Sequence to fold (361 residues):
Amino acid sequence: MNWDDAPDAAAERLVAADADREEQAVEAALRPKDLDEFIGQERVRQQLDLVLKAARKRGGTADHVLLSGAPGLGKTTLSMIIAAEMGAPIRITSGPAIQHAGDLAAILSSLQEGEVLFLDEIHRMSRPAEEMLYMAMEDFRVDVVVGKGPGATAIPLELPAFTLVGATTRAGLLPPPLRDRFGFTGHMEFYEPAELERVIHRSAGLLDVPVAADGAVEIAGRSRGTPRIANRLLRRVRDYAQVRADGVITREVAARALEVYEVDARGLDRLDRAVLHALLKLFGGGPVGLSTLSVAVGEERETVEEVAEPFLVREGLLARTPRGRVATPAAWAHLGLVPPQGGGGAGQGAAGPGQTGLFGP
Ligand code: ADP
Fold:
């Protein structure tokens, strides 16, 4: 989905995995600068370390690298680390920004020898640009087409050797010919709580905010496996600690702060809970169709499907079935509710009165 078009409910979320422009500036100060500083993702880190060391030993440019994984897991950060470790400059752009092959040709032809080109959301590049990229990646060459129709001519253009770092939310979204041209593919996983605690301690040090061990545990547990969210929650908890407490982030201060910001113990926010609440209270745990569920929470279908549901599914709180959305036993437990007799899921009894209440006059 295009985040520029995302409804406000999605854009303003404290637990959104994407960053807006303002946040990107704040984040820059918190980015690890080399592989040793980069926390977690052991496998990708070790493999990348080998790729980069070997390239340095050969005195050449590193192979093209594809990084796949959810937003906020560190793909941009890793691309900057690749450039830093190679002692090379970096150019950052994204698939949606490259609509014409000419846009790509302009970028490629202005690269310096050895430069790293970070192409975020590479799966959203236009088809003609993608086809130009094939040749550029393989032969460091592009054909620039001048003119139209029978008189059009292709002028070959030599490019400096460069390293492409492509980022995508799912490697499966890429056409195989593009995927095959990457020498190395790294899959970024969601982070374990202990890793997020390290991220929080590191960021707290850089921001000069005192955080107790149990305070970091509390924030990590609500960060949805994502360093970007951990850093964002840390900043909001810091504000609370400075205004309503003595500035130190303890477990209690973190919990109180995140209650104010409506991020619960499992990292669910108001929207997530509204979806679960409707599913359980109005529809007895489902199955219920996406459209009905969306109307019940007063949100767009896309918001429920693309913003709230992925995390609820990942947490094992909601299942998408051919008959509709169904709550799991963990969802009932999380909201402190008791499933209806005769097995949650069918839930005929609970649906009636609730529906009347919501959709009635
Ligand atoms: P992506 O490009 O995958 O959306 P970013 O690289 O922009 O994610 O990372 C988002 C934020 O999270 C950055 O501020 C970065 O400092 C932090 N971050 C990501 N991964 C790590 C990590 N492994 N260790 C420490 N901080 C991290």
User: Anything to note?
Assistant: The first strand starts at residue 65 and ends at 68.
